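hey can u check if this looks right to u? its 144 residues, i copy pasted from the old doc so theres a chance i mangled smth
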Amino acid sequence: MNELSLFDSLMNRALSDVLPDYTYNGSYNVPRVDVRENKDGYTLEMDLPGRTEKDVNLELDHNVLTISSKVEEKKEEKSDKKAEKDEGSWLIRERRISEFSRRFTLPDDVNGEKVAASFKNGVLTVKLPHKAIATPKRIAIEAA
């Protein structure tokens, strides 16, 4: 288990005894995230159906990655042709604002300067590369 998954796993285990169907990040306002690690770094994938890359904000500040989004959906229905001509006669007008924000404290081995993100088919993919491993350095001793 790594730092990225520790908090979510603790919350899920703690609440699963009380609420068996509960998942900490399972609310439909908070998208689920998959994180995997390979030799090059971490890959974070988040399903964001109905959103585009313009709807999503990514920010990296002091090793904390924040992914957020706010989308306003509008649904308009009118009763008849006369109402379509008269803009003051709404019978139903529903609006829904869908908003979320998730923060991830990144491990110290992530190179924040090379974080990259892409968005394709409703899936946000964030690449978090490892920092270069410092090689041992031999230090010369000077005679006094």
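DSSP finds two helices and seven strands in the chain.
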